[in-house]
Amino acid sequence: MGPARIRNFGIVAHIDAGKTTLSERLLYESGVEHRIGEVDSGTATMDWMPQERERGITITAAATTLPWREHQLNLIDTPGHVDFGVEVERSLRALDGAVLVIDAVAGVQAQSEAVWRALERRRAPAIVFVNKCDRAGADFMAAVASVHARLGAPARPVHYPLYQDGHFTGFVDLLSLEAWDSGGRAHDPEEPARRIELPSSVSDEARVLRAELLEVLSEHDDDVLAALVAGSEPTRPALHRALRRATLARKIVPALCGAALRNVGATAVLDAVVDWLPSPLDAPREVGFDPRNSARSEREPVASAPLSAFAFKLQVDAHGELCFLRVFSGVLHGGDVVWNSRTGKRERVGRLVRMHADVRVPVESAGAGEIVAALGMHEASTGDTLSALDAPIAFERLVFPEPVISMVVEPRSSADRDKLRSALARLEREDPTLHQREDEGTGQWVVSGMGELHLEVALQRLATEFGVDASMGAPRVAYREALRPDGPPSVASARFERVIAGKEVFGAVELELSAGARVEGEGAGLEVQWSVDCQTPAHYRPAVEQALRSAASVGPRFGFPMVGASVRLFGGESRPSTDAEVGFVHAAVSALREASERVQVQILEPLMEFEVMAPAEYSSGVIADLNARRAELASVESVGPNRLVRGLAPLHRMFGYSTAVRSLSQGRASFSMRPRGLRALPDSELAARGLTWA
Question: Among the three residues 449, 478, 507, which one is the final residue of a domain in this structure?
């Protein structure tokens, strides 16, 4: 199928907004599945992992393909929990648009903001689906207003909900002013929606909203403008054409309404994806650079262009690896030999499959705009660009956040040590936000991730997928060490002279360690600079940089990774007859350690941004508990009968908070939290945190 008939889109939202429930209805309505999977009963097709079905949440992004109106819809259902935000970030790298699901009661929530920012970075058009319009307290227009207020997005209703005796029954299509009654689907999901007369109770409101929508659309289509000026009715094709142009230009975010659990609105979402979201031809061209000469390079999404594909995700299990690929140009065949821009080497693509959640459907090739997975690729990793041998290209790599929480993991028996080492390495290869290292002193592994749930799921996977029986300690904050910005720089030098395997090896380095840049509260990695008078040969410098950054992963005081530091290498010495890479690497690491011993260090702790939605009668208890946790409250807002509390708190104080807030509200409050940078920890609190100077 040509790129013009392909739609690559994701379902994104805050946790519990109904993403997977909507995905299951799309599968059913498109005929891919003949039964409707349910999240609560553990039968959802897209939640295929045992941990997902047990917990009732999406953990890993799942891909599938749907046919609709002679189009191929490649759908990725993404997680809503902040601990698995990496799944959203890397999935969006392969997608051209998205459906943002909003809760009709709660409106835009914390993770909705995070995924919207990710969409804006990609400049990806989106559609809003206001879900759960059948719940008590649902307010479609208030939910659309929250999109304006919290996201700054130009959401415009193209639906208006219908209610009968207080029950949600369907919607009015504002483009055509047709009313559709889906009330029967509450009892039979196969019963088709019925077109009915526009109820007089909503006629005035619907006509006003339609007039406002047409006025905006007239700015994007001359035929619509001419019809409005003449006082006539614009044609349906002209309205859809104008709405598509406005959506692709990100001037309008169409807002639909429905109730996914009752299968109301799913077909409208499918139609909207086809009508208004971009094809690969409409999306911005993928731009990279030629690794041979660093020249800017751009690829057209057509089969005749040289091959280029992006590896946006690895999926690891006990049986091997799947490398998920978005083909941006050309055609990829199973068995092709491609160029990996990161490794600078050739790599053979194994068999190609199209994924339906965890089901693999073999395909012979994939053209421009398609999303497939490849088996048998052992070198490719997340963020790699694969391209034709005679036309290499490198696209921008993905950047992932640093972990904020750590736990100690150890096998229950010595026989499992090698299995645990191998399993953790494979999980780390799959998930760029999961870090692990073995402590040679204690024989334990320290596993770091984005939250308690993230690490709990990793431990469960060790047992279920890799057969490793391991125990996990209590969570610990992933602190960082940073040089005090007002402290003086430290200068050190080191030389390495030794005979190795009968050959004389030399290297000498002089460097200065000082406080570096800190961006938006985050600890930037170690910055390495080279002075013009530095004697280190140019071809040894990449290895020296890598060694310095590796050495900085263990700080000088507490052993936490060092961030916000800058190393400037200058002077030193070079002896061409005995210079060796190992010599300069050893000298640089030794000099860094010596310089680190003389600098002034401060400890940084992760800050978390939180949102708590609680009924008004429990809000005072919730706020009192947050104050006891030394949280900084930013705002308390009324949202219907509830109170929305926002603020910042140290991660150290928020362990186990989800259990506490449920207890304070008798299970009626919801809570979300996401990382918000780092801040310095006062020296007076070090002892209370169990931190003692090394």
Answer: 478
